[in-house]
Amino acid sequence: MNRRQLLTGAALAGPAAIDLVANTPQGDRPRGQALPKKITGVEVLYLEKPLKDRFWMSRSPIGGIKPMASRVIVHLHTDAGITGHGEGRDAGAAAFRKGFADLVIGKDPFMVGEIWERMFSVTYGREGALKGWSQSAVIGAMAAIDAALYDIMSKAAGLPLYKYLGAYRHSVPLYVTGGYYREGKGIDELVKEVMGYVGQGFDAVKIKIGGITGGYSVEDDYNRIKAIRQAAGPKLKIMLDVNGGWDVATTIRASNKLYDLDIVWLEEPLHWYDDVEALKRVKMNTRIPLASGEAEIDRWGARRLMETGVIDFMQFDCHKNAGVTEFRKIAGMASMMHILMAPHHEPPLHGHLLASIPNGYILEGFANPDRDPFWFEIFDRKPRIEKSVLYLDDTPGIGVEFNQKALAKYGTKIG
Hints:
This protein is α/β, with parallel strands linked by helices. The protein has 16 helices and 16 strands.
């Protein structure tokens, strides 16, 4: 008997029967009634693992000069026994160490908008100063908490997150990032690395360029990418990431030199101090599409970038900044401006988000365990990736399960 039939029968039987239904224990009610109403506890782990090598971008290596892989994992427990998991970057750890997670204790996890605004209000009031929570730490902590809330809600609904949000598709294209500058390694090693990704079935790669201050000229970078194109052939999609390594004049010269190598996009080419308005001049003088946005921390910064009218791909990273709630708002703005979403980092969560919007283009992934060891070690369950496609299934929530031995090995409880 379903709930409608039960209530109809109770109504016909009179008030006493209606009271009986109302007082039925949660566990005995029809499916969908035993929903979480309160966050009862928060656990926060900070994971660290030293990297074996330096993977240089244009100006700095991944994880620092003494390279370290790191991340935050948040577990939100509820009164219904559903636990939500959210991942974030290391910036949020500083806030969690000083009690930031207390803001969500006792809150209804379905009031995600209210919780988001409560957390964000810390960035423009005195509370952050009183508690010792910096703006960057708050924005980072929000990302992990917000993801965990969406994990709870979609689990409670019995749906994978992408369907809970309103799905457009079941799978999302993915590229692999590699081609870092490596100490003691040249073009031959670079080509071998990329062909290794091709051998694994990837048909799209992103390569690091722009290392002028490290001694790599525009001509050096052109030769690196040309060697990849010649080895891989015309079918390989190649994205280029400058990581803020060039000025305007160098960007224009380099982009026009690289154009004949059939580049999907040129990412974040300009120095940090003038990386938005100056893109207008770059756009007027190059034919390669432009990508940016991973450094934006909220929708206001993303709006400023998109309103220049020069980027073709928005790369907002909700794993790092502000969370799913903010990503959805930015994706909506981008859709109206005919900009495609291509988020920076972390395919499990971003895969669901791209599958739930009309303008989702491609995910970023990593295929080198020396560069991204946690992707290979901390999950017992994660999305399946084959031949540059991430496939989503019907597992409720975000759909990841963590390897407890790995968490114990690399993790420290900080909240």
